[in-house]
Design a protein that fits this description.
- The complex is a heterodimer of chains A (about 180) and B (about 110).
- Chain A has about 180 residues and is mainly α.
- Chain A has a three-stranded antiparallel β-sheet with strand order 1-3-2, covered by helices on one side.
- In chain A, helix 1 crosses helix 2, helix 3 packs antiparallel against helix 5 and helix 4 packs across helix 5.
- Chain B has one domain: Helix Hairpins (Orthogonal Bundle).
- Helix content of chain B is about 80%, strand content about 5%.
- The chains are: A mainly alpha (about 180), B mainly alpha (about 110).
- At the A-B interface, helix 1, helix 3, strand 1, helix 4 and strand 2 of A face helix 1, helix 2, helix 3, strand 1 and helix 4 of B.
């Protein structure tokens, strides 16, 4: 896999992964790996590929299994913590919490990192992403329960940590280098 | 013995998942604006559903439908943030949110009128 020239071999690999994933979903829906489900699945998958082709997305990434496990582990921990926090904010007596819209500029210029960070940020630490700028690699999140500027800085720090985990799990070497280069 | 432990685990998962989803529903009503409500709809709701699915998965154990639960959980994780983002973005842009509730608004500062 050479990122410089996306040769035909790489295109075949990529298409196989995409179609294979659809086939796996199909078989999981039926629940059994019988010849019938696989064959009908292949028919459906190739039908989808022909009728509804998706645009090509050029993202460079590499997966580091250990760092990826760290990312998933941290995500599950955050999911539990923030779920309980938001649930408590919802049911506790008293006035509703204050919130804030906070902008964060990411250090890496990778679209993949931006996408994954935005997606995870909406699921985890008390935030919903409301605006993303692909050209400036920045995103704006609505964050619950923010009362002062110190909490704003704490949130920014959490996002930096999240970005670092995502980049180390899925980013290219250049993305990882950018983490330490940009202040 | 193992079967009993699994029963208890499954019951705990189902109940805690249900409790989280209930709290999410209460938050959905009590939070002041669309943006805050999106928080209730994404976090406790997603985890609540995952816990319920896990509880049901234990009940079904050897059934082939367990895989469908895995898919339901997976797609919930993939799609909930996207819909929350779109609804939140729309609510902010069309000013259907309570901006007076915000401590800081850096989007208004960086892109006035957005």
């Amino acid at each position: 896999m050479s990122p410089q020239r996306p040769n035909r071999c790489w295109v075949v690999v990529r298409t196989t992964i995409a179609l294979g994933w659809l086939l796996v979903v199909w078989v999981m829906l039926w629940g059994t790996w019988s010849v019938g489900t696989v064959l009908s699945g292949l028919l459906v998958v190739f039908g989808i590929a022909v009728v509804l082709p998706l645009p090509r997305v050029d993202v460079r990434w590499r997966i580091r299994p250990l760092r990826f496990a760290v990312l998933v582990g941290a995500f599950l921990r955050d999911l539990v913590v923030s779920s309980v926090q938001v649930a408590w904010l919802g049911i506790r007596p008293g006035p509703p919490p204050n919130s804030a819209v906070i902008g964060i500029r990411l250090r890496s210029s990778s679209d993949l990192v931006l996408t994954v960070v935005a997606e995870l940020l909406t699921l985890v630490p008390g935030s919903v992403v409301i605006e993303v700028s692909q050209t400036e690699h920045s995103l704006y999140a609505h964050v619950l329960d923010i009362d002062d500027t110190q909490q704003v800085e704490e949130f920014r720090e959490r996002v930096r940590e999240l970005e670092e985990r995502v980049t180390r799990a899925l980013g290219t070497e250049a993305d990882v280098r950018a983490l330490s280069e940009v202040p | 013995m193992t079967a009993q432990l699994l029963e208890i685990l499954s019951a705990v998962l189902l109940l805690s998942g249900g409790a989280l989803t209930l709290a999410a529903a209460v938050g959905l009503i009590r939070f002041p604006d669309v943006l805050a409500r999106m928080h209730a709809a994404t976090k406790p709701q997603v985890l609540g559903l995952l816990l319920v699915l896990a509880g049901v998965g234990i009940q079904l154990r050897d059934n082939v439908d367990v895989w469908m639960l895995v898919l339901a959980g997976l797609f919930q994780l993939l799609t909930a943030p996207v819909s929350a983002h779109l609804v939140g973005r729309l609510a902010y842009r069309t000013r259907h949110s309570r901006r007076d509730q915000l401590t800081v608004d850096e989007l208004e500062r960086d892109a006035p009128g957005a």
